Amino acid sequence: xxxxxxxxxxxxxxxxxxxxxxxxxxxxxxxxxxxxxxxxxxxxxxxxxxxxxxxxxxxxxxxxxxxxxxxxxxxxxxxxxxxxxxxxxxxxxxxxxxxxxxxxxxxxxxxxxxxxxxxxxxxxxxxxxxxxxxxxxxxxxxxxxxxxxxxxxxxxxxxxxxxxxxxxxxxxxxxxxxxxxxxxxxxxxxxxxxxxxxxxxxxxxxxxxxxxxxxxxxx
Length: 219
What we know:
There is one protein chain. The chain is an alpha+beta fold. The protein has a domain at about 35-180: Sandwich (Immunoglobulin-like). The protein has three helices and eleven strands, in the order H-E-E-E-E-E-H-E-E-E-E-E-E-H. The model is unreliable at about 1-25 (pLDDT under 50).
């Protein structure tokens, strides 16, 4: 009897220790990512505008960021707001400026090459933003039919504690894609269907007529 009680007690102790170890095991932090949102834009007509966001996810104490942004200039163009070298529809997102004042510096885009050499923003205070949010928004329009990648490169994220030492926040990049190809609306489907049906009927009548006249062998 004593041996049974000792065995049961030992089992309970081991179970409690295992539970305690599991309960105190640290939860792995989610990885920081820099992404294009939405990741896929399709159904874009020529001259139709659309916006994409540069978004940071799961970041801690972000104080400053910098990226190079590129696209295929054969299929897309950045929307202009004027005739000057910096007059493009590029706006700062709310993620940093909701925490403090910021300095947002987009360099003039290279329209021929299809890239912005540098988009950057830094807080004007010793603080950082934590979580997920939009860093910048860019407005594009379809130029010709085709597929363009939306790429982030030379990306840098700095937290406010280590900004003086230029220590980067480790992160991964997720790029996007835009497809300029018209979508058929409901108003277009019926005319296309009726037109196709009419052509089929006309061809069938012509074949039948030729058979009756002896131009084609009747099977």
